User: Fold this.
Amino acid sequence: MVDDEQRENERDVAYRIATQIGMECSRDCLLTGPYIKIDENNPESSIERFLHWGGMSFVDYGTLEIVGKQEVELKSSKKIKLPDTQTIINFTSVSKKERFKELVCSLVNNNENVIVYTATKAQVENYARELLADDLLPDVESENMGMFLQHLENLFKNKKGAQWIVTMALKKGIGVHHGLVPKYIQNEIIDLFNNGVLKVLISTTTITEGVNTTAKNMVVLSHKKGRKELKPFDAKNIEGRAGRFIHHYMGRVFVFDKEFLTIKNEATDELGHKFFDRNTPKTSVDIPFIDNCYLTEREISEKKWIADMANSGELPSQILDVYKTIAPKDKYYLFQSVKRMTEQEKEEMRSFISSYNGSKYIKKSGLEVIFGKIKSILPQQGELLKLIEIQRDRYCLMTNLVSVFLKQGFVGSVNYYINSMGVDEAVRYAAKFVFNTLRYQVVKYLGLFNVCYKYALAQERNVETREIVGIDSLLMRMEYNADTPYGRKASDAGAPFAVIDYFDKLYSHQNDAGYELLDEYEKQNVRRIRNIVLS
Assistant:
């Protein structure tokens, strides 16, 4: 989407670049999405230019809905009749919080399931606590649930997992679903909800991102996504979670926030494409992929500088062609900085790489060298720079956090925070660092450093780049929480953390020695994915 926001989600950037490169290689593709608006009568539209460039045609199925929706706006009504039933819900309060609890309990008592949408992760957890506080829902009994709960209770040190809101909510049939809940736990919660074990699912917009449920009812508590207002696209997508083809042909949407309906009924934003829009400012990341006719003079000048650096060898293609969401100028500056490494820094790196590759021992001084090099190209207001600039004893906070993760994984990162805060807060902090900052941001910049480091040393020694040992195994551990091909496959299959470690050890030692140390839920997961991992 082309809009007025200066800050853009990097997933959008990566998707746009991947689409551009992919279509230059092959025109056999389908781009699809819900609630897209395109003005086919406007040849000056940037999306029309993109479609023409790609030789694509636009097919509009936007008017078709295979599952109907019944909207119920809960203003100050003292009672409502559930559509399609004879059930009457009598509200005893005018408070939004109390009416929310009465509605959810009535739906559950009617043996129906319900998704609850709200704007933020904190609100998801707070609404779960509201349902727990009055003990309104019965305990859930299920063999699978029992194994899963036992696993979660023992996940963190001193059985602190039992105090986690996700664990406590599950016992009462409530699923907590947002982006800072580990993915395998999210997936298990969705399975339990679809299988009828859980009756309530409270979520942010993560519920709209590739998740299919059997929910008939959707309760909308907010017209926002985080701090921003929803777009019509978002609102329609949220409402679309109510009802599921084959399961329910009519979904119910209960709306507590009337602004949600106002937004949903507004005209859908017209889709635009930044690469084909003359009037939209381009970033240094975008410029190399855009024809000059859509660039300003300044942007054309920057594009020429990039080409000149590539042609002169000052910015080698091996560096220019990787990590495309990092600006070429930043790649150039980092490469020049790496080439100027002192002999002491080189020795620190050699010792760091040898220790980690040999025994997985982390020499913090090596991490300090790397973070010192990438620091100059990081966004000034970004989380990474902040973590590098905060000192803890002899090292920066980033070095300490990365060291903890490399030694003990996500669970160790949570335990690190549990020392100074509550369990819920510790999980959120650790998850934000591991799943957002570390896995996507730190890995990206360390990956670029790795390429620059190996290329610079290869030039210096006059050898092939493949002969230089870098931090590749460290990057795999950061991105997949795994060290071996088995562990990586287990990670891709959505395995719990201990199961990934089990398959790592199985690959290295070729025996099942660690199997008996797993809990019953983890053993079940080993059996589920063993053939996938070992194939």
Summary: Residues 423-461 form the longest helix (39 residues). Residues 80 and 168 are 31 Å apart (CA to CA). The radius of gyration is 26 Å.
